[in-house]
Amino acid sequence: MPEAGASARRIGVLVSGRGSNLQALIDAIGRNELRATIAVVISNVPGVAALDRAAAAGIDTLVLPHRDWASREAYDEALAAALRDKGAALVCLAGFMRRLSARFLEAYDGPVLNVHPSLLPAFPGLDGPGQALAHGVKVAGCTVHLVTAELDAGPIVAQSAVPVLPADTADTLAARILVEEHRLFPQAVGRVLDGAWRIDGRRFLDV
Ligand code: GRF
Fold first, then answer.
1. What CATH number does the domain located at 7-110 have?
2. Residue 203 Cα distances to 137, 147, 159, angstroms
3. Which value, to the nearest 10 degrees, does the dihedral of the CA atoms of residues 89, 112, 46, 86 take?
4. Does the CB atom of residue 154 touch ligand 1 within 6 A?
5. Were both Cys, which of 85, 128, 182, 207 would link to 118 (CB 3.0–4.6 Å)?
């Protein structure tokens, strides 16, 4: 028998590429560190490694190429409908390289979490590690935040810092940050699924 409330722990994961954060979620669920079921993995790009990772784990996949829709709003409505159909109570953006519109957030009524490779609000947008290195910061890291219509700007759920070392390139720094992403993202997803949180202004707080 499924446990009470199990349906509320169904998550949808949106991807566009490599899928290492998806893999971290799959692995955390496999180790019973994250109590959740991945209901579906949806990619806006066909043929990406993330889809292979999902298939290898026996997870339903869907490819919704954004170019097949006439407008961003129409695409975002289709995406929200697909997630609702699968009963996803929370959505994880795991390297989903596409902005979600306000229309998506209206049409999908649940928390949406993103993992970003910088200590927000520093270095939003593309190539957080490269931006951090170019700026000369001594500490970099990653952020898991709730998604709002503004890019990389929603309430912060969790952050983790790593040092920037003198010999770093954008690639070595990104790799150090990625280790932390893989640890932090499943933890933050579990915390949001547990539900004992509230938003006060910009702050994500325990109830
Ligand atoms: C990660 O660095 C994540 O922070 C960013 O996109 C990258 C996705 O990597 N949003 P992967 O596809 O999870 O390996």
1. 3.40.50.170
2. 24, 13, 13
3. 10
4. no
5. 128
Which tokens belong to 54?
């999902």
- The residue whose CB lies within 8 Å of the most ligand 1 atoms, and thus the one to mutate among 143, 178, 189, is 178
| CA-20 nearest atom, ligand 1 | 14
Report how far ligand 1's centroid is from the alpha carbon of 111 (Å).
19
Q: Which CATH superfamily is domain 115-196 in?
A: Formyl transferase, N-terminal domain (3.40.50.170)
> What pLDDT is stored for residue 6 in this prediction?
56
Percentage of the chain modeled with pLDDT above 70: 97
Q: Average pLDDT, stretch 64-80?
A: 96
Instruction: Tell the residue nearest (CA) to atom 10 of ligand 1.
Output: 95
Within a 13 Å sphere around the CA of 37, how many CA atoms are in the beta-carbon half? 16
**Residue spans per domain, the chain:** 7-110, 115-196
Digit-coded pLDDT (tens) for 5-35: 556 799 999 999 999 999 999 999 999 999 9
Residue nearest to atom 9 of ligand 1 (CA): 95
User: SS3 of 42, please?
Assistant: strand
Catalytic residues: 116
- For residue 115, the model assigns a pLDDT of 98
Q: How confident is the model at residue 1 (pLDDT cuts 50, 70, 90)?
A: very low
